[in-house]
Amino acid sequence: MVTLAEVARHAGVSASTVSYVLSGKRSISATTRDRVERSIEELGYHPNAGARALASSRSNIIALMMPLRTDMYVPVMMEIALAVATTARTHGYDVLLLTGEEGPAAVRRVAGSGLADAMILMDVELLDARLPLVREAGRPAVLIGLPADTTGLTCVDLDFAATGALCAEHLAELGHREIAVIGEAAAVYERHTGFAERTVEGLRRRARELGLRTLHRPCEGGYASLAGTLARIFGERPGTTGLVVQNEHAIDPLLSLLREQGRAVPEDVSVVAVCPEQVALQASVRLTSVAIPAQEMGRRAVELVMEKLEGRGRPRSTLLPPELTVRASSGPPPARG
Amino acid sequence: MVTLAEVARHAGVSASTVSYVLSGKRSISATTRDRVERSIEELGYHPNAGARALASSRSNIIALMMPLRTDMYVPVMMEIALAVATTARTHGYDVLLLTGEEGPAAVRRVAGSGLADAMILMDVELLDARLPLVREAGRPAVLIGLPADTTGLTCVDLDFAATGALCAEHLAELGHREIAVIGEAAAVYERHTGFAERTVEGLRRRARELGLRTLHRPCEGGYASLAGTLARIFGERPGTTGLVVQNEHAIDPLLSLLREQGRAVPEDVSVVAVCPEQVALQASVRLTSVAIPAQEMGRRAVELVMEKLEGRGRPRSTLLPPELTVRASSGPPPARG
DNA sequence: CTGAAAGCGCTAACAA
DNA sequence: TTGTTAGCGCTTTCAG
């Protein structure tokens, strides 16, 4: 294994010079730099990560804690994770993948050992068991999701309350008066994951202001479950003309079932989805939707982590503004009677 | 920050004793061990990862290289990754997440710096650009997927040739004579990802033996694309009564379109899918399918890595045997005429 | 602009 | 069963 000392000898300079060439932390004459770089190249030198971490007390690693949930939509999680990983690389950091398996203790282990310089937590719940540990970990952390108490924390999330409101507004403007929300699985609400509840609250509040009647039904996703949900919705509120879906597993079944029931979209029922763009575009009807900006969230989280690692940046929450794109699934309600 | 030396002082023993209590690499009297463990507890000691890595030249980290492809089915990738992470933890290892972004050079960087002790590569292509680097990296590696030349390499994969054969057999036994394969996106074949081609080859070979006619059509997934694919299949081979789908994005559209076209499943057309169990179960018809054992693949990969890290275990490929589960989507073909 | 040298915290011989 | 100690390879003062 090639060491820095060997590079130094080969280039006829001191170890510190090689180190500084690598880090750029002090000015080096062009000739020296050239010589060192050539030696590095020739010898195929790679700085040892462990030695670096020990000497500098920085590992250049960010821990990413993912949940192990089965009820979250996987592609979004994945897109966030990949965005985190690639963005981190552009800042010279690698990403350590932690699953929820280990529980909150993982926070302590990774922070305490200095394995990671900072951490990003995904799928944060309103009262997340990891938060106390994060606060006392003494390492920069960024949450993806919004807990109940954000004091001292930095969070990134889509503004789901505004998202719900936006959906209500869009349907109201089109002239709808009765709308229903097909939500996430019941477990998601019970766990108080925040985003799902915020969407519904935002939608309800705005709907009230606009004089819309609303109904909210959680849904497991899949055909069987959705058939039941749909039946109950139209059973309780036959006048429903607008549906807001926040559940990726419900979208395909929803469109299929509506078609089978002879309800045309958007002539008889308008559908607005809260989902990733790709899902909205690949459905059998191009869906009017509010996009979930997964990549943006991952990217932002890393950038906030970097700010903290560099000493700039204090706790603050970033709520990304929702954007609604009108496509083929929404339109005016059918004429009354 | 609490160091091993402080623990030693606090417990009234030497540093090496603390180290050995931690590693269990030599016998310690019960009393000493107790004292040390109590000190560790009281002081809240966590061994420093960098120092450990430097002194032992082992980071206890496994690198996991994921692709950035958009045409692979994400939940499978994710399931593998999570299985890798949790299994690694049970062996005391953490997982570093590398995306394809950095290209093959990531292999060199991670191996050369000693950041990871071993690596697992996902989505390996027949002629994968990372393989030369893996071979010369001098670190244990396990591939998920099967390249063209496996000499000196350890691979894990579902036996896709046998999978294809199994699908052909099932349909043949039911009495079908003309079957079609709805495959992955064309790009997947062009890239020579192996698994997709192997399935079709295995299916074709067995079909020939059984006297079945076959047709294979790649498909992008989504409604529009699938409608075209389906039209071409039934246009060229009106007698087709069995469909094998190896494309998760095609499943929902396929079932919807068949229904709309008045082709009943399985009365008019049998459908056999190659997909994760969950997908087979959540479709509008419970699908006869060969499962993609994502978790098992992740778990196996880690176990093979561990064997190598412990010195046991030479290069060898593990092909997991496919299992076909008969559900509601396959049955005898309609009576002729 | 460059060098010398003191650690960083831990592991693993080597001794006892 | 336990202690002593020499590094592991790099960063970063402190000197020059």
TrEMBL record, chains A, B:
- The answer on whether this UniProt entry bears the keyword Transcription regulation reads yes
Where is the region Disordered? 313-337
Q: Give GO MF terms, alphabetically.
A: DNA-binding transcription factor activity; transcription cis-regulatory region binding
Start and end residues of each HTH cro/C1-type domain? 3-32
Q: Cross-referenced Gene3D superfamilies, in alphabetical order?
A: 3.40.50.2300, lambda repressor-like DNA-binding domains (1.10.260.40)
Which InterPro entries does the record match to this protein? Cro/C1-type_HTH, HTH_LacI, LacI/GalR-like_sensor, Lambda_DNA-bd_dom_sf, Peripla_BP_I
Q: Which domain of life is it from?
A: Bacteria
Residue runs in coiled coils: none
Q: Which Pfam families match?
A: LacI (PF00356), Peripla_BP_3 (PF13377)
Designated name of the protein: LacI family transcriptional regulator
Tell me which species this is from.
Streptomyces xinghaiensis
